[in-house]
Amino acid sequence: MNLVGRLLGAGGPEAVALLGERGATTYGELEDSVARRAGALVAEGVEPGDRVAILSPNNEAFVVAYLATLHVGAVAVPLNPSAPTEELAHQLEAVSPRLGLAVGRSVAELEAAGATVMSIDLDQTGPGPVARAERDPDAAAVLLFTSGTAGAPKAAVLTQANLAANIAQVLDHPGLRVLRDDVMLGSLPFHHVFGLNVVLGVSLAAGATVALESRFDAGEAAEIVGRHDVTVLAGVPTMYSQWLALDISPETFGSVRLAVSGAAPLPPEVGAAFHERFGVVVHQGYGLTEAAPIVTTTALGGSEPRPGSIGPPLPGVEVRVVDGDGADVLDGDPGELWVRGPNVFPGYWHDDEASARVLTPDGWLRTGDVAVVEEHGDLRLVDRAKDLIIVSGFNVYPIEVEDVLRGQPGVLDAAVVGEPSPRTGETVVAFVAATPETTLDVAALGEQCARALARYKCPSRIEVVDELPRSVAGKLLRRELRPSATRNPA
Is 9 in a helix, a strand, or coil? Predict the structure, then answer.
């Protein structure tokens, strides 16, 4: 198989695949450009199985580079264009790419990180097209760096079959099905699995159109939605929050028929406000890089989701909620979420030890996320297992405390971490960021926590910060706050 055949097989030659800096690109034009760029890769000595690093914002050049890499049977390694040189150098060293592909100033950045680089010039004719390489379904197609279930960033291997399976699982889902006449907003970064395989992969496989935005800007994205009559939004919670902060018409998202949020928990108040103001229901999904990525979704045919729910699993995806011994817990009890299916990755690149920590011998992926099965059968996330705080033997899930803090006037964002304590083992420390032109009353926040939470769950200290660390996908990076808590013991 070759995933490119799946991605370019549904759209007719005259149908529009991409809308971006170069105007409209049809599927016929895209396929021709990919085949020619693949010829250039072969001329540079790229062979099946070689790694090819790609450094580019969301534009036509990225799409062509990605598909051309797959076309020749090589392994695509999308990298973050905003990453510092040192980080890029570490990632290049980890995967040993045969070649780097970049556009514009990213060429110099990738060269500085140590790669041999070829510029992605879509106007250059170059060598003639080459035939598409056939690959084993279990052959690696993409390497994506993630710190999700295994701590320090590692390259997760996603095979041809993994990526194709999750695309099929999405398109087989009645609530998520993307149609040929749909236009999906392409603002999520393509170096992240949500942007790469959900926005780009699902859209192309459906024969739909992707409206590209090189880097997310709330105002520009809203304008793109209106200009191109975007029908499908895929975003992270911070994107929806930023749209709510704009002074724009309630009709701005009038063309949208489906909106999904993922990569981080969607605050219920954000989903409710977006629905009330723009008339669009925002469905929440759950996934992770190692599952290519979608596992569950509340998009069950358009019904309004229950607050906090992440929905049931996609067709073909199995889930379990287990205790520390790997035994299934009772419905309503928290446990670690395990996932199994053809979309689950085979492991981390050249790291058997890390792979064994997250994959059971019978193929279950230990996500590290704590979930409960609710009475209606949907799943609800509680927290990350590794973020669990244990105070005097009692479990404290940070998200429960964070939800209380975020619900207070003037609090824009909140994060909770554990801090070593000689008396209780750990104690709860909270970091909060204020809304613009707001001065937070830390004592009042503490009092509200005391009214809403059991005593052992209340923060021993609340610190006000300018902003909280979040990943490019909007995921809260609590690990970056733990050193601050340790340096400032209560």
Answer: coil
The packing angle between helices 237-245 and 268-278, to 10°, is 50
Fold of the domain built from segment(s) 3-373: Rossmann fold (3.40.50)
Could you read off the pLDDT of 334-393 as tens digits, one per residue?
999 999 999 999 999 999 999 999 999 999 999 988 899 987 888 998 877 678 888 876
- Measured in whole angstroms, the distance separating CA 194 from the mean position of its chain's CA atoms is 4
CA distances in angstroms from 262 to 267, 293, 473, listed in the order given = 11, 10, 9
Contact assessment for residue 365 and residue 344, using Cβ atoms and an 8 Å cutoff: yes
Angle between helices 442-452 and 398-406 (to 10 degrees): 120
pLDDT digits (tens, 9 = 90+) for 230-267: 999 999 888 998 999 999 999 999 999 999 998 877 88
Specify the fold of 388-487: GMP Synthetase; Chain A, domain 3 (3.30.300)
Contact 299, 173 (CB under 8 A): yes
In angstroms, rounded to a whole number, what is the distance separating the alpha carbons of residues 274 and 289? 27
Strands 75-79 and 99-102: unpaired
Domain segments of the chain as ranges: 3-373, 388-487
Q: Say how far apart CA 284 and CA 271 lie, in whole Å.
A: 9
Helix, coil or strand: residue 5: helix
- The Cα-based distances of 455 to 397, 416, 442 in angstroms read 14, 15, 17
Tell me whether residue 331 is exposed, middle or buried, using C-beta atoms within 10 angstroms of its C-beta: 0 to 12, 13 to 18, 19 or more.
Answer: exposed
